[in-house]
Amino acid sequence: MAEQRQDAGQKKYVDTEWLREALHNEDIEKFREEFLEMHPYDQATFFKELDEKGRRNVYHYLSPEEMAGLFENLEAEDSEYKDVLAEMNPSYAADMLSNMYADDAVDVLNELDKDQVVSYLTIMDTEAAKEIKDLLHYEEYTAGSIMTTEYVAIAANQTVRSAMHILKNEAPRAETIYYVYVIDDERRLVGVLSLRDLIVNDDDIMISEIMYDRVVSVSVGEDQEEVARMMRDYNFVAIPVVDFQNHLLGVITVDDIIDVMEEEASDDYSKLAGIADMDSVDKNPVTAARKRLPWLIILLFLGMFTASLIGRFEETLDQVAILAVFIPLIAGMAGNTGTQALAVAVRGIATGDLEKENRWKIVAREAGTGFIIGITCGVLVTFIVYFWKGEFFLGVLVGISIFITLIVSTLAGSLVPLVMHRLKIDPAVASGPFITTINDILSILIYFGIATAFMSYLTG
Fold this sequence. Notes:
The chain contains 23 helices and eight strands. It is mainly alpha-helical.
């Protein structure tokens, strides 16, 4: 098996079987020569496919600093980080974490027990441990929890020449050098300039003359989803993080935002599917069932309520049994329409598009959409039932039911997430199964309510 990697703009191939053979034959020189030329992502992919014995050999062959680059690219399940660290010598693991970017090290440590975190921080490099401790204090899913403190900052009262000198010295430790941030004597953020600005301007020009002083930044307590929207809107590679007094605390880079977007998308999809967590695939059926059961049990009781609701119209069904034929049609159309409106509303809230519009305009637009869909389907169903069953009034009854049901279902699908968003509740919890079941109940009430009201026309 061969894996493709990028090296100096050319395509190269790595024989991973050869690497495995060198690894297990303890041919350290050959293994290191080929392995260290691989991209860190390819290293991590290769590492993840190894058994425990192979991984232990890798720890022996690589220094903690070399292992840090691999670990930053390791896409493992949350519990796997704990297992892999447990295979390492504690001092080796602590040195590796010290050599990782602080935000990546924090992501790993957040998956460990508190006593394990304390243990690693105790034996870790003092400076690295301090940076990591500072980041661990921030609330999860906020800008502070995903920012890095490895950035380049300069003063406004210095020249481009001196700034480039600082940049060259700080670059090896910085996570990004595409933006250079300008701070005052109290470390307040006062400007920003790009690497290009430094390169194209004369060495003797003052930073204050070329910096951009209208800096877009985020608060340290800002929700990570909002940060992702800002970076998308402004097409930033990185964005500075400040406190309430505008002191520069760190930066968030685009690679962290990609992880956030994937995490948020997975979280929203989990809720829309009525599942507690889809971040990982559960190999244990008991664990998987435990995550899915809560919503399903709620929906089970709602389904029983729907069944009892139909039972209340037993007399109507006894008199006109053919009404039962159209129950799946009415309920199915209501569920489908409501889910469509829900998907539009949740996506709009997630992307921030709905923030730019008046909410009443959104509701009015969805009501109009439901009206057009309802009247189209209602008229169509009326004639289909008439030609199928030969009963015009039955067709009109089903058509009117479809018409009203689709308007109500569309409004429910759009209003519920908007209301939840207004109440600061994640709108994704208004999941597809939940909206479908609610619309089933509404559609049954509308359908049998109309049928009961006009029973004389059906039996006459």
